[in-house]
């Protein structure tokens, strides 16, 4: 355990602490979905550190302390989290959640995020989306799209835009945190062999009622063609 609080790793420190053998979160018993999600959410960013400290109305302080002291702080301090610490969290999720298989079965990352953010910590939804005039709130966005022959090795920007367009979705407001789950189809088939991370994401075209430039005259656009 690392009871002292450590900031997220940045630049040279991230490379020094996280690169090499025995680094990252140790996998065990189908934990890969949770390991990858926790690493992405906390290793190099503080945008969700409220999950570690803030006393939300429904917050389970025991789960919060396990997440903070046994997983996030050791990851930021030494670059390594042992499987036993993640199993401790999984046992708590099994005990407090509606599903009894969090300790042994592979889950969808969205199921894990919904459980820990909504039911256990009581965090407000991070995203507001609109489709067909109906608004919906969620904690992360999973990319759904048909196979695109022209996208051989896409980047995240392309995938998000294609997915929003095909699903006729818009962001109601700029999200404080935009968690995106890449397209995947189990162990046998992957839609893309590789996806290039976009270090910045331009959401201008994804925002509802956002002023945008006409591609022909340069004035403020009044119509949008898909």
TrEMBL record:
Key words of the record: Cytoplasm, Hydrolase, Microtubule
GO-annotated cellular components: microtubule; spindle
Ranges of residues in domain Peptidase C19 ubiquitin carboxyl-terminal hydrolase: 24-203
Annotated PROSITE patterns: USP_1
MF terms (GO), sorted A to Z: cysteine-type deubiquitinase activity
Keyword Cytoplasm among UniProt keywords: yes
InterPro entries the UniProt entry points to: Papain-like_cys_pep_sf, Peptidase_C19_UCH, USP_CS
Keyword Cell membrane: no
Cell compartment(s), UniProt: Cytoplasm, Cytoskeleton, Spindle
Protein name per the record: CYLD hydrolase
Source lineage: Eukaryota, Metazoa, Chordata, Craniata, Vertebrata
